[in-house]
Amino acid sequence: MTMPLAAVRAQLQWRYATKQFDPARTIPAETWQVLEDSLWLAPSSFGLQPWKFLVVDTPALRQELRKASWNQAQLTEASKLVVLAGRRSIDQGDIDRLIARTAELRQQPLANLDGYRKMLSGFVQGGWASKDLAAWNARQVYIALGQLLTTAAMLGIDACPMEGIDMAAYDRLLGLDGTPFTTLCSVPLGYRHASDKYATLPKVRMPREAAFERR
Amino acid sequence: MTMPLAAVRAQLQWRYATKQFDPARTIPAETWQVLEDSLWLAPSSFGLQPWKFLVVDTPALRQELRKASWNQAQLTEASKLVVLAGRRSIDQGDIDRLIARTAELRQQPLANLDGYRKMLSGFVQGGWASKDLAAWNARQVYIALGQLLTTAAMLGIDACPMEGIDMAAYDRLLGLDGTPFTTLCSVPLGYRHASDKYATLPKVRMPREAAFERR
User: Fold this and answer.
1) Rounded to a whole number, what is the distance in Å from the CA of A202 to chain B's nearest CA?
2) Could you read off the pLDDT of B101-127 as tens digits, one per residue?
């Protein structure tokens, strides 16, 4: 079942970076499952999924992460908090795991995927993205971020993505030091507080004709 | 009006990278408008919108872009084609334009936004993203990409995002050389062909418990 056009447009307009969450409101578990689905099922280049999603529910840890986020209250007042981390690199093991998983889920012999494996290895070792695999991975994580924010909007869930955080402190607090993953973005999710004045301000966008060119 | 949970989950599962489009099917104009809305209204860091969206309808140009895309048929067979370009940098002029636009749309005196302007300038000149502004901008474009792909899925529109393209050729063909923008991603959109066997293959994702960690 797809969604009516007017409803999609309305929810895209409704979304904003929430400054003040209502701490009394909780995202229902079944809604949160679908928000996790939106991350889990997000598209990525070659399907490599170069990410890890850290769902932080421990109040004391959220308090510590708040200190690493310019003390922004959303960290502790939003119903949920997910930190999006990206792989620091991609190695042959990551490629082999993807190929094995493909063979398993699609019930294909591994040998049938050998050409694909070689092409993928060649790209990771010598393609344009090979100059900075961490940056390439970060782009993929931002696809997942976009999918999460849009899905949240469609479900009437508010969010406030944050990049301006102390990522080294996040890595330390989340136990990511020495792992293949590093913090990229922190996303509190929940429900806007009735008194958040930013909710009703006009969205600031360049004129539509400046965003697009026709060829 | 928000969307039912089961429908959102179903559309997230329904989405896949479409290998074969039905050239006989056209995205209705009013649906395309909402897909453009999803790009235009996409979130970005500080709301800087460091992007340009090139909608390519000229058949001869799409044929040329196909050659710069490993001759993949989606370039000419999909109903629509949009190329996502990112700013090569961010300068004070970009910041000043954003501040002026904010003052205009929110009917605030420019002076009220002076602190915000200074904070933003400081971040662009010395924050973590200042080491590679093009990479930072690319991440924002990928949020817009994620929002486009998710919105398309909610509307039952198929897409095939492509990064493995000859970006220098794209820039030349689209007239982006010497402009502040450069090609990042090419996205044909339309309707899957009934004979695309990829449509019915299981989605390849890591096990759900491997995508998430709980803290």
Assistant:
1) 6
2) 999 999 999 999 999 999 999 999 999
Chain A residues with CB under 8 Å of B49 CB are: 205-206, 211
Q: Is A13 on the interface with B (CB under 8 A)?
A: yes
Closest-CA residue of A relative to B94 is A206
Instruction: Check B155 against A40: CB less than 8 A apart.
Output: no
Long-range CB contacts for residues A30-37, cutoff 8 Å, separation at least 24: A30/B5, A31/A155, A31/A157, A31/B5, A32/A80, A34/A151, A34/A155, A34/B5, A34/B8, A34/B9, A34/B12, A35/A80, A35/A148, A35/A151, A35/A152, A35/A155, A35/A157, A35/A189, A36/B208, A36/B212, A37/B9, A37/B12
**Chain B environment of A170 (Cβ under 8 Å):** none
Q: Is the Cβ pair A7, B10 closer than 8 Å?
A: no
Mean pLDDT for each consecutive 10-residue tract of chain A (215 residues)?
Answer: 94 98 98 98 98 98 98 98 98 96 96 96 95 97 98 98 96 98 98 96 96 98
Q: Where are the beta strands (DSSP E) in A56-202?
A: 80-87, 158-159, 181-190
Tokens of B74: 């989606």
> How far is Cα B162 from Cα B21, in angstroms, rounded to an integer?
14
Q: How far B92 CA sits from the closest chain A CA (Å)? A: 16
CB B169 within 8 A of CB B68: yes
Nearest alpha-carbon partner for B162 in B87, B71, B88, B79: B71
Residue pair A147/A37 in contact by the 8 Å Cβ criterion: no
Q: Write down the pTM of the prediction.
A: 0.98
B10 interaction partners in chain A (CB closer than 8 Å): 1
Q: Which domains does chain A have, with CATH numbers?
A: 14-193 (3.40.109.10)
**Which residues 37-96 of chain A have a CB within 8 Å of chain B?**
37-43, 45, 47, 49, 51-58, 61
Q: Which of A144, A164, A199, A147 is nearest to A21 (CA)?
A: A199
- Model ipTM value: 0.98
CA torsion angle B73 B76 B77 B78 (round to 10): 110
Q: Least CA distance to A203: which residue of chain B?
A: B105
A52 contacts in chain B (CB < 8 Å): 211-213
B100 in contact with A, Cβ within 8 Å: no
